[in-house]
Specification:
The chain has 17 helices and no strands. By secondary structure, it is mainly α. The radius of gyration is 22 Å and the shape is globular.
Protein backbone atom coordinates (compact mmCIF):
# COMPACT_ATOMS: atom_id res chain seq x y z
CA UNK A 1 0.00 0.00 0.00
CA UNK A 2 1.16 3.50 -0.74
CA UNK A 3 1.82 5.67 2.30
CA UNK A 4 2.79 9.22 3.18
CA UNK A 5 5.72 10.02 5.41
CA UNK A 6 4.66 10.21 9.05
CA UNK A 7 4.05 13.74 10.20
CA UNK A 8 6.90 13.56 12.67
CA UNK A 9 9.57 12.28 10.23
CA UNK A 10 12.01 14.66 8.54
CA UNK A 11 10.55 16.03 5.32
CA UNK A 12 12.47 16.38 2.06
CA UNK A 13 14.39 19.60 2.10
CA UNK A 14 14.95 19.71 5.88
CA UNK A 15 18.25 21.12 7.06
CA UNK A 16 21.15 18.69 6.59
CA UNK A 17 22.14 19.56 10.15
CA UNK A 18 18.94 17.99 11.48
CA UNK A 19 19.67 14.80 13.39
CA UNK A 20 18.94 11.54 11.61
CA UNK A 21 15.98 9.56 12.98
CA UNK A 22 18.29 6.85 14.29
CA UNK A 23 20.21 9.40 16.39
CA UNK A 24 17.14 10.41 18.38
CA UNK A 25 17.01 9.22 22.00
CA UNK A 26 15.18 5.90 22.37
CA UNK A 27 12.49 7.48 24.50
CA UNK A 28 11.81 10.07 21.79
CA UNK A 29 11.56 7.35 19.15
CA UNK A 30 9.10 5.44 21.31
CA UNK A 31 6.96 8.55 21.70
CA UNK A 32 6.90 9.02 17.92
CA UNK A 33 5.94 5.39 17.39
CA UNK A 34 3.15 5.73 19.96
CA UNK A 35 1.82 8.86 18.29
CA UNK A 36 1.81 7.06 14.96
CA UNK A 37 -0.02 4.04 16.36
CA UNK A 38 -2.77 5.68 18.37
CA UNK A 39 -5.77 7.38 16.81
CA UNK A 40 -5.02 10.74 15.21
CA UNK A 41 -6.68 13.35 17.44
CA UNK A 42 -5.99 16.31 15.16
CA UNK A 43 -9.64 16.62 14.01
CA UNK A 44 -10.65 17.02 17.67
CA UNK A 45 -7.76 19.32 18.46
CA UNK A 46 -7.96 21.66 15.48
CA UNK A 47 -11.64 21.80 14.46
CA UNK A 48 -13.98 23.10 17.15
CA UNK A 49 -17.24 22.32 15.32
CA UNK A 50 -16.20 18.72 14.73
CA UNK A 51 -15.03 18.44 18.34
CA UNK A 52 -18.42 19.54 19.69
CA UNK A 53 -20.28 17.20 17.33
CA UNK A 54 -18.03 14.29 18.27
CA UNK A 55 -18.39 14.75 22.03
CA UNK A 56 -22.13 15.31 21.74
CA UNK A 57 -22.55 12.21 19.60
CA UNK A 58 -20.41 10.12 21.98
CA UNK A 59 -22.49 11.09 25.01
CA UNK A 60 -25.77 10.60 23.15
CA UNK A 61 -24.65 7.21 21.82
CA UNK A 62 -23.95 5.97 25.35
CA UNK A 63 -27.39 7.20 26.42
CA UNK A 64 -29.13 5.53 23.50
CA UNK A 65 -27.53 2.18 24.24
CA UNK A 66 -28.67 2.53 27.85
CA UNK A 67 -32.20 3.07 26.58
CA UNK A 68 -31.95 0.06 24.25
CA UNK A 69 -31.09 -2.15 27.22
CA UNK A 70 -33.84 -0.61 29.33
CA UNK A 71 -36.51 -1.18 26.66
CA UNK A 72 -35.57 -4.86 26.30
CA UNK A 73 -35.60 -5.33 30.09
CA UNK A 74 -38.95 -3.58 30.46
CA UNK A 75 -40.60 -5.53 27.64
CA UNK A 76 -39.41 -8.83 29.08
CA UNK A 77 -40.49 -7.85 32.60
CA UNK A 78 -43.97 -6.99 31.32
CA UNK A 79 -44.46 -10.03 29.10
CA UNK A 80 -42.03 -12.74 30.18
CA UNK A 81 -41.76 -13.54 26.46
CA UNK A 82 -38.56 -13.71 24.44
CA UNK A 83 -40.69 -13.39 21.30
CA UNK A 84 -42.17 -10.11 22.51
CA UNK A 85 -38.68 -8.90 23.36
CA UNK A 86 -37.43 -9.90 19.90
CA UNK A 87 -40.18 -7.83 18.29
CA UNK A 88 -38.36 -4.72 19.53
CA UNK A 89 -35.82 -5.27 16.75
CA UNK A 90 -38.54 -5.61 14.11
CA UNK A 91 -40.28 -2.41 15.19
CA UNK A 92 -36.98 -0.54 14.79
CA UNK A 93 -35.87 -2.17 11.52
CA UNK A 94 -38.74 -1.00 9.29
CA UNK A 95 -38.44 2.73 10.22
CA UNK A 96 -34.65 2.53 9.92
CA UNK A 97 -34.91 1.34 6.33
CA UNK A 98 -37.79 3.60 5.26
CA UNK A 99 -36.62 6.79 6.94
CA UNK A 100 -32.96 6.08 6.20
CA UNK A 101 -33.62 6.38 2.48
CA UNK A 102 -36.02 9.29 2.95
CA UNK A 103 -33.70 11.08 5.37
CA UNK A 104 -30.85 10.75 2.90
CA UNK A 105 -32.90 12.41 0.17
CA UNK A 106 -33.98 15.22 2.49
CA UNK A 107 -30.37 15.76 3.59
CA UNK A 108 -29.45 16.52 -0.02
CA UNK A 109 -31.88 19.43 -0.25
CA UNK A 110 -32.44 20.78 3.28
CA UNK A 111 -30.20 22.39 5.88
CA UNK A 112 -28.35 19.44 7.40
CA UNK A 113 -27.83 21.32 10.65
CA UNK A 114 -31.58 21.74 11.03
CA UNK A 115 -32.16 18.05 10.33
CA UNK A 116 -29.62 17.18 13.00
CA UNK A 117 -31.44 19.44 15.47
CA UNK A 118 -34.85 17.97 14.62
CA UNK A 119 -33.60 14.39 14.92
CA UNK A 120 -31.82 14.96 18.24
CA UNK A 121 -34.76 16.88 19.70
CA UNK A 122 -37.16 14.14 18.60
CA UNK A 123 -35.00 11.45 20.19
CA UNK A 124 -34.81 13.43 23.43
CA UNK A 125 -38.59 13.79 23.52
CA UNK A 126 -39.11 10.05 22.96
CA UNK A 127 -36.67 9.24 25.79
CA UNK A 128 -38.57 11.65 28.04
CA UNK A 129 -41.83 9.87 27.16
CA UNK A 130 -40.24 6.52 27.98
CA UNK A 131 -39.12 7.88 31.35
CA UNK A 132 -42.61 9.25 32.04
CA UNK A 133 -44.36 5.96 31.25
CA UNK A 134 -41.91 4.04 33.43
CA UNK A 135 -42.37 6.43 36.37
CA UNK A 136 -46.15 6.33 35.94
CA UNK A 137 -46.10 2.51 35.77
CA UNK A 138 -48.32 2.31 32.67
CA UNK A 139 -47.12 -1.19 31.81
CA UNK A 140 -48.23 -0.98 28.15
CA UNK A 141 -45.97 -2.86 25.75
CA UNK A 142 -47.59 -1.11 22.79
CA UNK A 143 -46.24 2.22 24.07
CA UNK A 144 -42.73 0.78 24.11
CA UNK A 145 -43.06 -0.56 20.56
CA UNK A 146 -44.31 2.81 19.28
CA UNK A 147 -41.49 4.60 21.10
CA UNK A 148 -38.88 2.29 19.59
CA UNK A 149 -40.30 2.89 16.10
CA UNK A 150 -40.23 6.67 16.62
CA UNK A 151 -36.66 6.48 17.89
CA UNK A 152 -35.59 4.59 14.78
CA UNK A 153 -37.39 7.10 12.54
CA UNK A 154 -35.78 10.16 14.14
CA UNK A 155 -32.35 8.50 14.11
CA UNK A 156 -32.64 7.51 10.45
CA UNK A 157 -33.91 10.98 9.51
CA UNK A 158 -30.97 12.78 11.10
CA UNK A 159 -28.10 10.29 10.68
CA UNK A 160 -27.48 10.86 6.92
CA UNK A 161 -27.38 14.61 7.55
CA UNK A 162 -24.89 14.27 10.40
CA UNK A 163 -22.62 11.99 8.37
CA UNK A 164 -22.79 14.23 5.31
CA UNK A 165 -21.64 17.17 7.47
CA UNK A 166 -18.27 15.65 8.30
CA UNK A 167 -16.49 16.60 5.02
CA UNK A 168 -17.56 20.20 5.71
CA UNK A 169 -16.14 20.15 9.25
CA UNK A 170 -12.65 18.75 8.56
CA UNK A 171 -10.40 18.91 5.46
CA UNK A 172 -10.24 15.93 3.11
CA UNK A 173 -6.81 14.77 4.27
CA UNK A 174 -8.16 14.38 7.81
CA UNK A 175 -11.30 12.44 6.92
CA UNK A 176 -9.76 9.02 7.65
CA UNK A 177 -8.80 10.25 11.13
CA UNK A 178 -12.26 11.76 11.66
CA UNK A 179 -13.97 8.53 10.58
CA UNK A 180 -11.72 6.56 12.93
CA UNK A 181 -12.76 8.87 15.77
CA UNK A 182 -16.41 8.42 14.79
CA UNK A 183 -15.88 4.68 15.13
CA UNK A 184 -14.41 5.24 18.60
CA UNK A 185 -17.57 7.17 19.48
CA UNK A 186 -19.85 4.42 18.19
CA UNK A 187 -17.85 1.65 19.87
CA UNK A 188 -17.85 3.50 23.18
CA UNK A 189 -21.63 3.63 22.99
CA UNK A 190 -21.88 -0.10 22.23
CA UNK A 191 -19.54 -1.11 25.06
CA UNK A 192 -19.95 1.49 27.81
CA UNK A 193 -23.67 2.21 27.30
CA UNK A 194 -25.01 -1.27 28.09
CA UNK A 195 -22.71 -1.60 31.12
CA UNK A 196 -23.76 1.73 32.65
CA UNK A 197 -27.37 1.01 31.71
CA UNK A 198 -27.29 -2.34 33.46
CA UNK A 199 -25.91 -0.79 36.65
CA UNK A 200 -28.49 2.03 36.64
CA UNK A 201 -31.39 -0.29 35.89
CA UNK A 202 -30.35 -2.69 38.62
CA UNK A 203 -30.03 0.10 41.18
CA UNK A 204 -32.83 2.52 40.27
CA UNK A 205 -35.03 0.91 37.62
CA UNK A 206 -35.47 1.48 33.89
CA UNK A 207 -36.67 5.05 34.43
CA UNK A 208 -33.14 6.03 35.52
CA UNK A 209 -31.66 4.93 32.17
CA UNK A 210 -34.40 6.78 30.27
CA UNK A 211 -33.84 9.98 32.26
CA UNK A 212 -30.07 9.92 31.78
CA UNK A 213 -30.56 9.38 28.05
CA UNK A 214 -32.93 12.36 27.87
CA UNK A 215 -30.39 14.65 29.55
CA UNK A 216 -27.52 13.27 27.43
CA UNK A 217 -29.12 14.61 24.25
CA UNK A 218 -28.40 18.11 25.51
CA UNK A 219 -24.78 17.65 24.36
CA UNK A 220 -25.79 16.85 20.77
CA UNK A 221 -28.38 19.64 20.67
CA UNK A 222 -25.76 22.14 21.83
CA UNK A 223 -23.25 20.92 19.23
CA UNK A 224 -25.80 21.20 16.41
CA UNK A 225 -26.97 24.61 17.61
CA UNK A 226 -23.42 25.98 17.39
CA UNK A 227 -22.94 24.87 13.78
CA UNK A 228 -23.48 27.23 10.86
CA UNK A 229 -26.13 26.46 8.26
CA UNK A 230 -25.21 23.33 6.29
CA UNK A 231 -27.16 23.41 3.05
CA UNK A 232 -25.86 21.05 0.33
CA UNK A 233 -23.36 22.56 -2.09
CA UNK A 234 -24.05 22.92 -5.80
CA UNK A 235 -27.10 23.99 -7.77
CA UNK A 236 -30.09 21.74 -7.28
CA UNK A 237 -33.46 22.15 -8.93
CA UNK A 238 -36.49 20.40 -7.52
CA UNK A 239 -36.58 17.71 -4.89
CA UNK A 240 -33.88 15.12 -4.33
CA UNK A 241 -35.06 11.66 -5.35
CA UNK A 242 -34.14 8.45 -3.58
CA UNK A 243 -34.14 6.76 -6.99
CA UNK A 244 -31.64 9.32 -8.28
CA UNK A 245 -29.34 8.34 -5.44
CA UNK A 246 -29.69 4.63 -6.23
CA UNK A 247 -29.07 5.31 -9.94
CA UNK A 248 -25.98 7.34 -9.05
CA UNK A 249 -24.67 4.46 -6.94
CA UNK A 250 -25.32 1.99 -9.77
CA UNK A 251 -23.28 4.13 -12.17
CA UNK A 252 -20.28 4.63 -9.85
CA UNK A 253 -18.32 1.36 -9.76
CA UNK A 254 -15.94 2.16 -6.91
CA UNK A 255 -18.64 3.27 -4.48
CA UNK A 256 -20.88 0.38 -5.54
CA UNK A 257 -18.08 -2.11 -4.93
CA UNK A 258 -17.46 -0.71 -1.45
CA UNK A 259 -21.14 -1.28 -0.59
CA UNK A 260 -21.07 -4.82 -2.02
CA UNK A 261 -17.97 -5.64 0.02
CA UNK A 262 -19.78 -4.58 3.20
CA UNK A 263 -22.82 -6.66 2.26
CA UNK A 264 -20.61 -9.71 1.74
CA UNK A 265 -19.24 -9.33 5.26
CA UNK A 266 -22.65 -8.77 6.84
CA UNK A 267 -24.56 -11.53 5.06
CA UNK A 268 -22.00 -14.34 4.99
CA UNK A 269 -19.76 -13.56 7.93
CA UNK A 270 -22.16 -12.51 10.69
CA UNK A 271 -22.91 -15.48 13.01
CA UNK A 272 -24.57 -13.32 15.69
CA UNK A 273 -27.80 -15.34 15.66
CA UNK A 274 -25.82 -18.48 16.57
CA UNK A 275 -24.19 -17.05 19.70
CA UNK A 276 -26.68 -18.64 22.14
CA UNK A 277 -26.20 -22.08 20.55
CA UNK A 278 -22.44 -21.64 20.28
CA UNK A 279 -22.14 -20.58 23.91
CA UNK A 280 -23.60 -23.95 24.95
CA UNK A 281 -22.28 -26.33 22.29
CA UNK A 282 -18.78 -24.85 21.87
CA UNK A 283 -17.99 -23.60 25.35
CA UNK A 284 -20.48 -25.20 27.76
CA UNK A 285 -21.46 -21.72 28.91
CA UNK A 286 -24.62 -19.80 29.73
CA UNK A 287 -26.15 -16.36 29.18
CA UNK A 288 -22.97 -14.67 30.43
CA UNK A 289 -21.02 -16.44 27.71
CA UNK A 290 -23.49 -15.15 25.12
CA UNK A 291 -22.87 -11.65 26.42
CA UNK A 292 -19.11 -12.09 26.07
CA UNK A 293 -19.48 -13.34 22.49
CA UNK A 294 -21.73 -10.41 21.60
CA UNK A 295 -19.37 -7.87 23.18
CA UNK A 296 -16.13 -9.20 21.69
CA UNK A 297 -16.54 -7.70 18.17
CA UNK A 298 -17.38 -4.30 19.68
CA UNK A 299 -14.27 -4.45 21.88
CA UNK A 300 -12.18 -5.31 18.82
CA UNK A 301 -13.80 -2.46 16.89
CA UNK A 302 -12.92 -0.03 19.67
CA UNK A 303 -9.32 -1.29 19.75
CA UNK A 304 -9.05 -0.96 15.97
CA UNK A 305 -10.26 2.62 16.12
CA UNK A 306 -7.99 3.55 19.04
CA UNK A 307 -4.93 2.21 17.21
CA UNK A 308 -5.81 3.79 13.87
CA UNK A 309 -3.11 6.42 13.67
CA UNK A 310 -1.74 4.83 10.49
CA UNK A 311 -4.93 4.99 8.40
CA UNK A 312 -4.33 8.55 7.20
CA UNK A 313 -1.16 7.39 5.47
CA UNK A 314 -2.90 4.77 3.31
CA UNK A 315 -3.65 5.88 -0.25
CA UNK A 316 -4.79 2.57 -1.79
CA UNK A 317 -8.05 2.59 0.12
CA UNK A 318 -9.87 0.14 -2.15
CA UNK A 319 -7.22 -2.49 -1.56
CA UNK A 320 -7.40 -1.73 2.16
CA UNK A 321 -11.18 -2.36 2.16
CA UNK A 322 -10.79 -5.70 0.37
CA UNK A 323 -7.98 -6.79 2.69
CA UNK A 324 -9.93 -5.84 5.82
CA UNK A 325 -13.13 -7.62 4.73
CA UNK A 326 -11.14 -10.74 3.78
CA UNK A 327 -9.49 -10.61 7.23
CA UNK A 328 -12.97 -10.41 8.78
CA UNK A 329 -14.06 -13.54 6.89
CA UNK A 330 -10.93 -15.49 7.83
CA UNK A 331 -11.29 -14.53 11.50
CA UNK A 332 -14.93 -15.67 11.51
CA UNK A 333 -14.04 -18.97 9.82
CA UNK A 334 -11.31 -19.59 12.39
CA UNK A 335 -13.78 -18.73 15.17
CA UNK A 336 -16.02 -21.50 13.87
CA UNK A 337 -13.22 -24.00 14.57
CA UNK A 338 -12.22 -22.64 18.00
CA UNK A 339 -13.28 -24.53 21.10
CA UNK A 340 -11.42 -22.47 23.67
CA UNK A 341 -13.52 -19.52 24.88
CA UNK A 342 -10.67 -17.02 25.12
CA UNK A 343 -9.40 -17.95 21.66
CA UNK A 344 -12.93 -17.57 20.31
CA UNK A 345 -13.28 -14.13 21.92
CA UNK A 346 -9.90 -13.09 20.53
CA UNK A 347 -10.91 -14.13 17.01
CA UNK A 348 -14.22 -12.25 17.27
CA UNK A 349 -12.35 -9.19 18.49
CA UNK A 350 -9.97 -9.50 15.52
CA UNK A 351 -13.00 -9.64 13.21
CA UNK A 352 -14.42 -6.50 14.84
CA UNK A 353 -11.07 -4.74 14.41
CA UNK A 354 -10.99 -5.65 10.70
CA UNK A 355 -14.55 -4.39 10.30
CA UNK A 356 -13.57 -1.05 11.81
CA UNK A 357 -10.69 -0.64 9.35
CA UNK A 358 -13.00 -1.48 6.47
CA UNK A 359 -15.62 1.01 7.69
CA UNK A 360 -13.09 3.83 8.10
CA UNK A 361 -11.95 3.53 4.49
CA UNK A 362 -15.43 2.92 3.05
CA UNK A 363 -16.79 6.02 4.77
CA UNK A 364 -13.82 8.07 3.62
CA UNK A 365 -14.27 6.95 0.02
CA UNK A 366 -17.97 7.79 0.12
CA UNK A 367 -17.37 11.23 1.63
CA UNK A 368 -14.55 12.21 -0.74
CA UNK A 369 -15.47 10.57 -4.03
CA UNK A 370 -19.19 11.41 -3.95
CA UNK A 371 -20.35 14.98 -4.71
CA UNK A 372 -21.79 16.88 -1.76
CA UNK A 373 -25.30 16.89 -3.20
CA UNK A 374 -25.34 13.06 -3.20
CA UNK A 375 -23.77 12.36 0.19
CA UNK A 376 -27.02 12.35 2.12
CA UNK A 377 -28.64 9.73 -0.11
CA UNK A 378 -25.56 7.54 -0.08
CA UNK A 379 -25.54 7.72 3.71
CA UNK A 380 -29.20 6.69 3.61
CA UNK A 381 -28.30 3.61 1.57
CA UNK A 382 -25.48 2.94 4.05
CA UNK A 383 -28.00 2.95 6.92
CA UNK A 384 -30.15 0.43 5.07
CA UNK A 385 -27.13 -1.87 4.63
CA UNK A 386 -26.09 -1.48 8.27
CA UNK A 387 -29.65 -2.15 9.44
CA UNK A 388 -30.63 -4.84 6.98
CA UNK A 389 -27.33 -6.63 6.33
CA UNK A 390 -26.95 -8.15 9.83
CA UNK A 391 -30.59 -9.28 9.78
CA UNK A 392 -29.97 -11.09 6.50
CA UNK A 393 -26.85 -12.51 8.08
CA UNK A 394 -28.92 -13.79 11.01
CA UNK A 395 -31.21 -15.58 8.56
CA UNK A 396 -28.34 -17.02 6.51
CA UNK A 397 -26.39 -18.34 9.49
CA UNK A 398 -29.50 -19.72 11.19
CA UNK A 399 -30.76 -21.44 8.03
CA UNK A 400 -27.40 -23.06 7.24
CA UNK A 401 -27.00 -24.17 10.86
CA UNK A 402 -30.44 -25.79 10.86
CA UNK A 403 -29.59 -27.71 7.67
CA UNK A 404 -26.07 -28.68 8.75
CA UNK A 405 -24.53 -27.64 12.09
CA UNK A 406 -23.42 -24.42 13.82
CA UNK A 407 -19.80 -25.23 13.02
CA UNK A 408 -20.48 -25.67 9.31
CA UNK A 409 -22.56 -22.49 9.28
CA UNK A 410 -19.88 -20.31 10.86
CA UNK A 411 -16.93 -21.72 8.92
CA UNK A 412 -18.71 -21.77 5.57
CA UNK A 413 -20.00 -18.24 6.14
CA UNK A 414 -16.53 -16.87 6.80
CA UNK A 415 -15.08 -18.66 3.77
CA UNK A 416 -18.01 -17.51 1.60
CA UNK A 417 -17.21 -13.93 2.65
CA UNK A 418 -13.61 -14.38 1.51
CA UNK A 419 -14.76 -15.97 -1.75
CA UNK A 420 -17.14 -13.08 -2.40
CA UNK A 421 -14.33 -10.57 -1.85
CA UNK A 422 -12.01 -12.44 -4.22
CA UNK A 423 -14.78 -12.46 -6.83
CA UNK A 424 -15.36 -8.73 -6.40
CA UNK A 425 -11.63 -8.09 -6.71
CA UNK A 426 -11.48 -10.16 -9.91
CA UNK A 427 -14.46 -8.36 -11.43
CA UNK A 428 -13.41 -4.88 -10.28
CA UNK A 429 -9.59 -4.69 -10.41
CA UNK A 430 -9.89 -0.90 -10.70
CA UNK A 431 -11.24 -0.84 -7.14
CA UNK A 432 -7.96 -2.30 -5.91
CA UNK A 433 -6.17 0.60 -7.62
CA UNK A 434 -8.40 3.27 -6.05
CA UNK A 435 -6.09 6.06 -4.87
CA UNK A 436 -7.24 8.56 -2.25
CA UNK A 437 -5.04 11.22 -3.91
CA UNK A 438 -7.15 10.93 -7.08
CA UNK A 439 -10.62 9.85 -5.85
CA UNK A 440 -13.10 8.64 -8.43
CA UNK A 441 -16.56 7.32 -7.51
Amino acid sequence: MSTNHPANSPADGDSPLAPAPSSAPPRSRYRRLARGAFADLSPLRDHADYRRVWFGQSISSIGQQMTAVAVSVQVYDLTGSTFATGLVGLFSLVPLIAFGLYGGAVADTADRRRLGLIGSAGLAVVSAVLAAQAIAGLGLVAVLYVAVALQAAFFALASPARSAMIPRLVPAERLPAANALNTVSMSLGLTVGPMIGGVLIGAYGVQAAYLVDTVAFGATLYAMWRLPAMRPLGDRKGRASVLDGLRFLREQPNLRTSFLADLAAMIFGMPRALFPALAITFYGGDARTVGLLAAAPAVGALAGALFSGWVGRIHRQGAAVMTAVAAWGLAIAAFGLARNLWLGLLLLAAAGCADTISMIFRNTMMQVAAPDEMRGRLQGVFIVIVAGGPRLGDFESGAVASLTSPTVSVVSGGLACVAAILLLAARRPAFLRYDARHPTP
